[in-house]
Amino acid sequence: MAIQLKSPAEIAKLRAVNLIVADVLDALEAAARPGLSTWDLNEIAAQRLKHHKADSAFLGYHGYPAVLCTSVNEVVVHGIPRKDVVLKEGDILSIDFGAFKDGWCGDSARTIPIGTVKPEATALMNATREALERGIAACVPGNRLGDIGHAVQSYAESNGYSVVRQFVGHGIGRAMHEEPHVPNYGDAGKGRRLSAGLVVAIEPMVNAGGPDVVVKEDGWTAITRDGSLSAHFEHSVAITDAGPVVLSRI
After folding, report:
1. Which fold would CATH assign to domain 8-246?
2. What one-character-per-residue DSSP string does 208-242 give?
3. Parallel, antiparallel, or unpaired for β 104-113 and 235-240?
4. pLDDT tens-place string over residues 141-181
């Protein structure tokens, strides 16, 4: 599929749905606490979607059974909300959420602490969040896709972490996953040139240990091969002549 550049009016539609995504994530972050199950969070998200008269981008996607991905500790991405996965003090929880409104898709993710977490968990989350910011800063016309991945990878690795390569970011618009793929690694100055009107979801997944992941028997849940902690942050970003615009940030 060819890359679909968006007009300012279309970017405004994407901004509107991404504000819904951000609102739901804010509500989930406020609710998440020890003793709550990840299924409880899924129900909160479903109710917020109804409030906004929006539709889940995840539920039913290739058979996915929930409106959220809830990934705890060594789970990298695509953790399925469950009644028997109960959050406990010291966990870190990655929440990935997407929605459709008026035919446009928003997508964002964040990793949050549950109660008080260990300093090494805080450091991992901070580094992953900053790696995303470095990637966003590279989203200017004339740069290349490799500049985004290089910015993410070089920051994460300079802090002693590894970047997952099995899962990457993506273009976004009328579909959740559009061209191009947006890796969280790469060489500066390489790859497709970035143009105004391109909208991408950048989503570094950063591990405290090695980069390898294993997908469990459910076909979705991806965990670090070595059992190390993983963090995940994502924003939908419009590339404009005035610089990057983070659509999923309130």
Report:
1. Creatine Amidinohydrolase (3.90.230)
2. SS-S-EEE-TTSS-EEETT---EEE-BEEEEEETT
3. unpaired
4. 999 999 999 999 999 999 999 999 999 999 999 999 999 99
